[in-house]
Design a protein that fits this description.
about 80 residues; mainly alpha; 3 helices; DUF5133; DUF5133 domain-containing protein
Length: about 80
């Protein structure tokens, strides 16, 4: 499996979290569709099948990630 560059993963995580916040605020169709597109890209880039697993996998591939980091919990 090809591995996405950590910078790409970091950008995708940031985009997804921003879009999730936008969707929560205004629920626009455009924000929802873009969030789904980014979620799909995260899944492809990490070899996972759902966005939660993709986010965990992506975070573990970022520089400075440690095996004991609890990536399931998010701030906020």
């Amino acid at each position: 499996m090809l591995m996405a560059h950590p910078a790409v993963l970091e950008d995708l995580i940031e985009q997804y979290e921003t879009l999730r916040a936008l969707h929560a605020e205004n629920g626009s169709h455009a924000a929802r569709q873009r969030m789904n597109d980014v979620a799909y890209t995260l899944c492809v880039a990490t070899g996972t099948r759902d966005v939660d697993a993709a986010l965990i996998a992506a975070r573990h591939r970022l520089p400075g990630a440690r095996p004991q980091d609890d990536s399931i919990l998010t701030a906020g």
